[in-house]
Design goal:
With 427 residues, the protein is mainly alpha-helical. 45% of the residues lie in helices and 6% in strands. The protein folds into 3 domains: 31 residues, no CATH class; 111 residues, no CATH class; 225 residues, hpI Integrase, Chain A, CATH 1.10.443. The protein is globular and about 70 Å long.
């Protein structure tokens, strides 16, 4: 896509010593490497796929002009040239075979691929390639593809793994090992934590094929057992007066590509009173206990100065961060099979879905959504509705309300000539 002139910039003035130049080159090189690695998780895979499509197109059309950086703000000539090239990319991606049935690649995939190619070029040049006022023809082309696609299809079913499932797995005869040292203990703590903190498959550790990042994943330093004000084991007093032990996980959404999302503290309490925990009571259905067992088993593996930046939730090797694939294929789906369920219906977010569903059932829709949002688990308020599953009992209560609806008059019936507005006035 052109040469990277940015990397050739000299940041030193005339007369710089050899020592200064060595230091400046080292710092600039490290900064450029950091910039190149700025994309994390899902964005990396999208840009990689888009780059492969770009390369296939260039192989077909070797004389296709490369994208060029804008020479100055408002450089419409270069912007329109680049827009035309991106429209060629869009049409090429649209025509790629999606499957043996000959279905078209959907417009949102086309849009994502074009955006990723544009992003790759801009990060390479460190300059924009399309003006802020440009890109209208490209947008119209993608909009037309969207109209051809028609309405999006129904979401595929992905089953939630709920508290009742986790409790059943802890039974001695379930066939699911949660007691042996090593992976059995670690995967159980990961499953319990994922349900409690509403985590996606890649949030305890890392996404498939990705490197663990202490900025995104959960390290030992993000697991807190003590009260910062007293230094003693953390406890919380519930509304019924019972005092329970607490461990807090600091979780950040893996889909935040900007690094702006805060880590949200997610308290996880013991099922039994703190006094029982202190006396040595062990209940393997308790998420606090599950996480504590994993902590105690590995806390002496290295000095704290080293341990604090290592991943806490690990895979079968006990060292590297657990991946989405490992959580799904070596924990969630085997658990489903032990319960006699259809394992293929359970994905990496099954525990997140289960937690959202359990919250909705226990707290009601409004309060559950409010608490999910407060925990920072979903940026969009309606995403909780997508993950949580409506219960048969909830729908039955709705039916009962319709069956025994009482007699009443509507405001429109009581006030002839008045029609309810589409939006209520707000004062």
């Amino acid at each position: 896509m052109g040469s990277d002139a940015f990397a050739a910039i000299d940041v030193l003035g005339p007369g710089a010593s050899e020592r200064e130049r060595l230091l400046a080159d080292t710092l600039l090189g490290a900064a450029l490497e950091r910039s190149a690695r700025a994309n994390l998780g899902a964005k990396d895979s999208r840009t990689g796929a888009a780059l492969s499509k770009w390369e296939r197109l260039v192989n077909l059309v070797p004389n296709l002009k490369p994208l060029q950086p804008l020479r100055f703000e408002g450089d419409l000539d270069t912007s329109e040239q680049n827009e035309a090239i991106l429209m060629v990319v869009a049409q090429y991606v649209r025509g790629l075979p999606k499957n043996t049935a000959g279905d078209l690649v959907r417009s949102d995939t086309v849009s994502g691929s074009v955006s990723a190619v544009k992003l790759i070029a801009e990060e390479h040049f460190h300059r924009k390639v399309v003006c802020a006022t440009g890109g209208l023809a490209l947008r119209r082309a993608v909009q037309h593809m969207a109209r051809e696609d028609g309405p999006a299809g129904e979401r595929g079913y992905s089953a939630p793994m709920r508290r009742q499932h986790l409790d059943a797995l802890a039974a001695p005869g379930s066939g699911f090992d949660i007691r042996s040292p090593g992976w059995a203990t670690d995967r159980w703590s990961t499953m319990q934590a994922s349900h409690q903190a509403l985590m996606r498959g890649g949030e305890p550790g890392t996404v498939d094929g990705g490197e663990f990042s202490s900025a995104k994943g959960i390290t030992w330093a993000h697991v807190t057992w003590t009260d910062p004000t007293t230094g003693r084991p953390a406890v919380v007093t519930l509304g019924n007066g019972a005092v329970h032990s607490v461990v807090t996980l600091a979780v950040v959404p893996i889909k935040d590509q900007t690094g702006k999302a805060k880590r949200f503290p997610c308290p996880i309490i013991s099922k039994h009173p703190a006094a029982d925990i202190a006396a040595g009571r062990v209940d393997l259905t308790c998420p606090y206990t599950a996480i504590r067992r994993s902590w105690d088993a590995r806390v002496d593996a290295a000095p704290w100065t080293e341990l604090r930046t290592r991943p806490f939730f690990v895979g079968p090797d006990g060292v590297h961060a657990v991946t989405t694939e490992q959580l799904r294929d070596l924990a969630i789906r085997p658990a489903a099979r032990c319960l006699g369920l259809v394992a293929s219906q359970f994905g990496g977010s099954a525990l997140r879905r289960g937690g959202a569903t359990d919250l909705k059932k226990e707290l009601g829709s409004a309060q559950a959504k409010a608490m999910i949002t407060q925990r920072g688990r979903w940026a969009d308020y309606d995403i909780g509705d997508i993950y949580s599953r409506a219960s048969v009992e909830e729908q039955a209560e709705t039916s009962a309300a319709l069956n025994w609806a009482s007699t009443f008059r509507t405001m429109e019936e009581a006030n002839p000539g008045w029609v309810q507005p589409t939006h209520w006035a707000r004062r």
